[in-house]
């Protein structure tokens, strides 16, 4: 008596064209960056020079560091409008405590970072326990932080200590702003992909109520998320201060929008639950390349704002299309 053997079901083959399409759908920012680099290399011989590429990295550094902190917030489905003002406040606290209070340089650096951490934690508390919408809570913190920066500085630049200024200098052939950006990116990647806190952020962004019912301490996690955003913003503020050897009261104006744009362009969803350090890095570099390329092509700064706005709108539209494709 023979027994018939059933052939195991074979997984459906995915055509090469569909595989490429899926990869491009998930890596749209990287594809756009590659195409843009090729176009600019053909349009101007000055783009692919070593000096210009380093300049692109330095220009991208502060926005990228802020954007890495913003990634935590957007992954949870939130928003942080205070990061530009918090960056200015962190740099100003560090400079003022050295120039006017005579504190040691290393301590002023820590105070600047602590300022950002505290500002973010306060915003997180108002969201988690005060039930304020993230938009309103961080908008209020933006106004408070900018006001404090102006009060402390009296509207004038304040010189900073060497313990801060080294972050804006070159070490050998490496500009320290780029090193700071890479360090911030690695920390962001590690938190999101290798820690319980990072996995909890994705869970909250996917479904906050389900995360709460599953036992996650949602309130504490949200406070941690906004505290991290403030910390990264202050870090970027110290890098900005270091590049100028002084804290500027109007530093960081509009940087919150660039940071949000970098995160969204990099593939994060404003609805939460999706995003990562690599995508944010690509998004920040893409914005810097666009601005750099338009400068090399002598395009007016007014038109540059229009182009950046179109890119942001396209990125959000792409995110909507992708979400519909995934849900089908």
UniProtKB/TrEMBL annotation:
Q: State its location(s).
A: Cell membrane
Question: Coiled-coil ranges per the record?
Answer: none
**Matches recorded under InterPro entries:** ABC_transp_permease
Any idea what this protein is called?
A: Ribose/xylose/arabinose/galactoside ABC-type transporter permease
One protein family per Pfam: BPD_transp_2
Give the PANTHER family listed for this entry.
ABC TRANSPORTER PERMEASE PROTEIN YPHD-RELATED-RELATED (PTHR32196), RIBOSE IMPORT PERMEASE PROTEIN RBSC (PTHR32196:SF72)
Question: Single GO molecular-function term?
Answer: transmembrane transporter activity
Cellular-component GO terms for this entry: plasma membrane
Asked whether the keyword Transmembrane is assigned, the reply is yes
Alphabetically sorted, this entry's keywords are:
Cell membrane, Membrane, Transmembrane, Transmembrane helix
Q: What organism is listed for this UniProt entry?
A: Corynebacterium maris DSM 45190
Q: Which domain of life is it from?
A: Bacteria
Its primary localisation, in coarse terms, equals membrane
Which positions, given as ranges, span the membrane?
Answer: 53-74, 81-99, 105-125, 132-152, 172-192, 221-240, 252-271, 302-321
Topological type in the membrane:
Multi-pass membrane protein
């Amino acid at each position: 008596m023979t027994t018939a053997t059933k052939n195991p079901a074979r997984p459906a083959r995915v055509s090469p064209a569909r595989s490429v399409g899926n990869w491009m759908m998930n890596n749209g920012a990287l594809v756009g960056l590659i195409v843009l680099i090729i176009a600019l290399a053909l349009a101007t011989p000055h783009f692919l020079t070593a000096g210009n590429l380093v300049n692109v990295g330095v220009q991208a550094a502060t926005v990228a560091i802020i954007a890495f902190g913003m990634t935590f917030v957007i992954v949870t489905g939130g928003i942080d409008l205070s990061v530009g003002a918090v960056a200015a406040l962190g740099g100003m606290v560090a400079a003022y405590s050295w120039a006017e209070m005579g504190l040691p340089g290393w301590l002023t650096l820590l105070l600047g970072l602590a300022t950002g951490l505290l500002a973010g934690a306060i915003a997180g508390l108002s969201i988690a326990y005060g039930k304020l919408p993230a938009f309103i809570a961080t908008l209020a913190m933006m106004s408070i932080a900018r006001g404090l920066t102006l009060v402390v500085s009296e509207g004038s630049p304040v010189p900073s200590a060497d313990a801060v200024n080294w972050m804006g200098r070159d070490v050998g052939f490496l500009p320290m702003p780029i090193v700071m950006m890479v360090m911030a990116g690695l920390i962001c990647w590690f938190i999101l992909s290798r820690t319980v806190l990072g996995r909890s952020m994705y869970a909250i962004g996917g479904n906050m109520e389900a995360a709460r019912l599953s036992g996650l301490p949602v309130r504490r996690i949200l406070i941690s998320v906004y505290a991290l955003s403030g910390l990264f913003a202050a870090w970027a503020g110290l890098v900005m201060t270091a590049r100028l050897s002084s804290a500027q009261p109007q530093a960081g104006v509009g940087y919150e929008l660039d940071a949000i744009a970098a995160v969204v362009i990099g593939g994060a969803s404003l609805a939460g639950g999706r995003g990562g350090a690599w995508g944010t890095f690509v998004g920040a570099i893409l914005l810097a390349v666009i601005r750099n390329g338009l400068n090399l092509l002598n395009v007016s700064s007014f038109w540059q704002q229009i182009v950046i706005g179109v890119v942001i709108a396209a990125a959000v539209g792409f995110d909507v299309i992708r979400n519909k494709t995934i849900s089908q």
